[in-house]
Amino acid sequence: MSCANPDGMYCLVDCNVLSNSVLSGFSALLCCAVLTTIKANGKVLAQEDTVELAVASERLIGTDGSDMDQTTSIMSQPQSAIFIEFEPVPKITPVNIPSAIPPIAFVITNTLVVSDKAVTAPVCYNLWVVET
Fold first, then answer.
1. Catalytic residue ranges
2. Half-sphere exposure of 4 (CA within 13 A, CB side)
3. Which residues form a coiled coil (predicted)?
4. For 98-122, what is each residue's pLDDT tens digit?
C-alpha cells in the first residue's frame, strides 16, 4: 500500500500513552496516525489494507511488531473480543463476551518496568516477536 503524492497536513498530537509503554500503546497511536493520514488524503481502504499499511509503517521505524496489535486496533468490534488467524490469510472472528454474574472484568496493570524500545527494539523486542 502506498499513496503517491500524499497531501501534507499539520498535526498536533497529544496523548496519555505512557512513555515506553506496552499493551500496544505505540501500535494504537501509529494506527491512529495511519487512519488520519488516509482520511486527510481522501482515500478509502479496506480494513485489511489499513492493517497492512500500519504494519509496514511500524517496520519502517525499526520495530518488527506482530500484526496482532494493528489488527486488534483497526478491526476490533464493540462488545466483543476477536479471534485472529493469520494463515492461510488474515481473518478475524468476533467472539461475544457473555454476560455473567458477577460481570466479567479485564484487569490491566502497570508493572512500572520500563522498556525503552527505541534502544532495545533491534535486539530484544524484534527477537521476542520472532520467538513467539
1. 69
2. 0
3. none
4. 888 998 888 877 777 766 666 766 6
